[in-house]
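Bench log, entry 3. Co-assembly request; chain sequences pasted below exactly as received.
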Amino acid sequence: MLFRPAPERPALRPTAAAGEVALARAAQAVAALATAALVLTALVAHPIPAGDAGEYLAMAESLWRHGTPEMRPGDVYGLAAVASGMADINFADVRRGYFEDRAGARLSYHFWGYSALGLPVRAVLRLTGARAVRALPLANALLFSAALWAVAQARRLCGTERLALTCLLLFSPALWLLLWPHPEVYTFSMVTLALVGLSARKLGAALLATSAAAMQNPPLIVLAGAIWILILKDRVLVPASLAVRLRALAPAALLSLPAVVPMVYFYVHFGTPSVIARQGGATLDVLSLRKALELFFDLDLGLLPCVPIVILAWAAGVAVCLVRRTVALDFLAAAVLLPMALMCSTTTNWNHGATGPSRYAVWMTPLLYGAFLAWRTRLGGSDTAPPHAYRVLLAAAVATQAAITLGRGGPLARPDYLDHSAAARFALRHAPTLYNPSPEIFVARTLHLDAPGYLDLTRPVLYRDGGTCRKAWARPEDLDALAAACGRTPRRERSDAEGWSYVSF
Amino acid sequence: MTGLIGPWRYSILLTASLLAIGTVSCRRSRAASSAGVAVRATVRPATVAAGSPFAVEYSWSLEAGGAAPPEGFSAFVHFVYPGGAIAFTDDHVPEPPPSTWRPGETHRYTRTLFAPADAFADKLQVRVGLFHPERGRLVLAGADVGLQEYVAAQVELARADSRRRLRYGSGWYAPEAPPGDPFGNRRWIQPEAWLAFRNHQQDVIALVRAETNYAAFARPPVLTLAVGSVAAAVPIAGSAPFTAAVRFPAMALGKDRWAELKLAMSGSFVPSAIGMNPDQRELGLWVHHIFVGPASEIAPLLSSAPISAAMASGPSGGPAH
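Structure output for the full assembly:
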């Protein structure tokens, strides 16, 4: 057998130690305080309508006004009115995501499920006289809080883990997206709930949460598939009558429906299960392992600069599994995360609107936190209490993340996807040859320019740091001009098929 | 204590309701009394393709015995969808200003407008009125459709005409539609930008409505529109939006199926570098609308003759306004 399963993880057993009970209570206290802070922030701070937020707001407006996601003139006008002075929406950007269906109705190529979630919240806001444009951020706050509560009360985790994971989730990059009327916090929360369900072996609940998450982010179908394997293994491929096995299969199929609804909806309206793919927003032509790995390790749009200890621990854990030929949580997480990341890499707008890491990476973090638990066994955990080294690791991860997340302004962090991150700037200053991201990332963030259609990837792009040339994306024929402009001859690195390459100074 | 809350709550609600009614009444009373003004508008052509220019001739009449509106009144013009949503506007000061009108006079003038490129196809009402920043709206002669708005004309908005499609080349930033112009499609350009249009081997007029931040330029900015070696310079007189029309002869367009129009600004600015806002882009001109079409179709829509483009060293046009 190539891989053998790791021993039963004591981390998933409840502990009776008094200290652990206190820590579990502390986790609930953190969840309570966080709920208050998240809701208050959503009610006070202005929404951040970046990325595709305008589309989700427009769909919410349409659903509110006439019960369908079709964009009508009054919806545009109505949204402009409700967002006035609170959220600067670029309606040209919004319209770019709308296409006419077979009947001539203008529909977004994103699914409206998340927007529909905001309707009951908007109804409550209306009663209180609050601005309707806050509905989706408030829905984010409520879902985020639900995820925190679920972890803070997860019985399969010890007190230390409940507290650490609650804090890790709270100070995750999802906090930066709280005020975005965008489905990342929703997806992040659903993935978290699914993992809590999985840990409690509530496979139905886990499948429903995952399917609901996949409704807005289809790569999560991979996680749904993994849960299906467990359901088949535990409940269908067991010695039982056909009727019993079918009874186990039927609810699972029903709980998977949310993941399929968008495809059916788009097929009915447009004759294709994905309008995004048909419009060129995603294509297998650009699928790449390099881009998939960038979601985790790139210094600009990857998770590494945002959750460094968790990412490094995950990578190390996977390496340990490969060397020892064992299966642990981090290895399983990689088996789910890598296919999902590959699916994400099919997007053509790679340097998309974000604050901190790529939006795709944000909803992957709960899986990485889950993978973190594998270190309890590795660091010598016992049944009664988690080992000291494990506690230190968790504490270090929480402290680092809190510093990074709050240091960028917490939920008030502004979109920064058109600038190099602090980590990338550091690398470009001190070791430019070591940082070679996908050209789209380097070009967009060096030129501070948005959207793939408006990026000119045919001209050399030079990154300067305080007037000093550091790195450029160029062809051989540009080198003389670069040398003249910078006063130094650049070092040429490996080039692509068309002769383009990074050069460093 | 609970017993007190109920009556108090009702008192507060009642007071608030009365105040609200009072506020509405005040708003209504802000409408100035009738000045005997009537307005009509004629739209040409009656059906306009999204993104295309069209002409509106406004006709303001002050009846005999009527009093001219006080100083400071200007026209609001809303192009309104059947559901009440405003597609776009053409607020402006009538020519001449209303305060100079005399009883029995009728004043006509033509304005060239653009149907927004992304507007929904539908029949729009052209609702017009007069308003003053402090005095509110003026009651005019005619049927009020609410809030002192008067239907002066109708226009059929059609889908964009694929024959007049433009291909945006380099130098253009992503489209923008701010909340005040949600159906618009504005684009900033770099100091130079190119776009291609279908060449039908006939004279064309390039029509541009744009603005820039005049104060950001060290010297008064100049916009140059060029097709090949034929060009026209358009000095920009201020930060207000302006419309420029430049006629290019057929011979300048060459023989290819597509001809290329170049927009060049005499300078540029980076907002973040001059402390305006965090925008780090190099900006030249904010183009609200641009259209290139046969001169025979466009010329009748203009209120004044277009600038004639000439060989690059030729004469320049007058200031844009």
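The radius of gyration of chain B is 24 Å. The helical segments of chain B are 2-29, 295-298.
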